[in-house]
Amino acid sequence: MERQQNRVYIFDTTLRDGEQAAGGNLNVAEKLQIARQLSRLGVDVIEAGFPAASPGDFACVEAIAREVKDSVVAGLSRTKKEDIRACFEAVKSAPRRRIHTFIATSPIHMEHKLQMKPDEVLEEIRSAVSLACGLVEDVEFSAEDASRSELPFLIEAFKTAAAAGASTLNIPDTVGYATPDEFYEFCQAIIKGVDAPKAVYSVHCHNDLGLAVANSLAAVRAGVRQVECTINGLGERAGNASLEEVVMALKTRADRYGFVTGLDSTKLHPTSALVSRLSGVHVPPNKAIVGANAFAHQAGIHQHGVMKNPLTYEIMNPEEVGASGSELVLGKHSGRHAFRDRIEQMGYVLTPDQIETAFTLFKKLCDSKKNVSDGDIAALIADEILPASGEGLYELKHCSVKTGNGPTLAVVTLANGKGDISDAATGNGPIDAAYRAIWRVIDLEPELLSFNIKATSDRSDSLGETTVLLRSGDVTAPGRGVSTDVIESAVKAFVNGVNRLHVLASAKGVELSVKKHKHHYE
Fold this sequence. Notes:
Elements (H helix, E strand, L loop, with lengths): L8 E4 L15 H14 L3 E5 L5 H13 L4 E7 L2 H11 L5 E8 L2 H8 L3 H16 L5 E6 L6 H14 L3 E6 L6 H15 L5 E6 L6 H11 L3 E4 L13 H10 L1 H4 L10 H12 L20 H9 L21 E2 L4 H10 L6 H15 L4 E2 L1 H12 L9 E8 L5 E8 L4 E8 L2 H12 L5 E9 L8 E9 L2 E9 L2 H23 L14
Parallel strand pairs: 1-2, 1-8, 2-3, 3-4, 4-5, 5-6, 6-7, 7-8
Antiparallel strand pairs: 9-10, 11-12, 12-13, 14-15, 15-16
Helix pairs in contact: 1-2, 1-11, 2-3, 5-6, 6-7, 7-8, 14-15, 16-17
């Protein structure tokens, strides 16, 4: 990647580190939607996954490498030779490709996780980076847990990587331990000590103390020119540095930092919404830049000031991040052209056949409600179009509930490829009863970890969208369902989650918790 003055490169790891958030599980179609939108956003590097982790991860990285043309497509690998070769095979079709290899350098990791001596780690770095550089021109090396590493050894590790050919040297705050002043001095000392002027220095900050963005910006001031981040700050534990916050901090406070990114900030809001819906991780209303309340003003004195001059209480315009503007209202008289334009504005890139299917579903929805919101359309695409990739182990055929003074009764019929299977159950309300009926029908004993249902818009006729998180054995998977009937949306979400459990278990080569007794519910 050719360096440019006054430029900070954005390395997005939503599809790798972001998906490692608890319950994260995106299928190939969903990852492709996000990758396409990240490329349109202008992200410099898309870390598409960890190819050696599983056949499913390999397939996702390979698919993204074939599709994305404008961004560098990176795959993550350990320093193991088989990881690096798998990574190359996954990214090799990308016009611009990168192998990102890493090994831990902190005393606690070297002793307890790697069980390696410092000299052995240095030799591992030299060997791995040399192998990667023999396969691709663009190689990044990361020193895992850098912020808890001993500075002299860390500098030696980066020198070894640079000498072996790494063009990007990444300084991760893996456990979110650093503070901004400390991290500024730390990064500055590394850059000075390594003395590799042709290298691009990078940071990857976690948010365990809520300092990921602050630490990333401090690193930029210290001389770092690549920031690794995720949409909505997704990631393990408390997440990563939020891409939208880093980008808008650099843009809004250009007077302080003096750097630019190559991103189209007007696409931040639709990208955030796309990732939120497909990942099932909702954006808090008070989230900076992309939260529902980011540009809301309730206090009277604030409202008065904003009406006089928005700059009194807004340091950026909502339009800068794509958060406002006139909404095209779609209804039963809307045509294909308006529909296609709308889904593209929302960040979705569909094939002609998918657009036609989505348009048919949209017209069907118009028969039951007057106006269709963006949320309705996005929910339809996420629920009906993107999962249509062979995940349908079970299909909901019928669900009915009967409520009254006594317990609620639910009857559920599923198709499983061999025929229809039905059962009934009572429960504490219609959704509980329906879930008990499903539990009696399927061959698993999944544990329901979380349940959330919300409206797709603020209108009374909006769709109900349900997200669940299921666990079976060591496998955790989300489920999503949408319908004008909230009970049906909840049932569809559960069935979708069960299907994802099967697909994910198959990709990982692990066993699910099979039902021991025919009729069992916990």
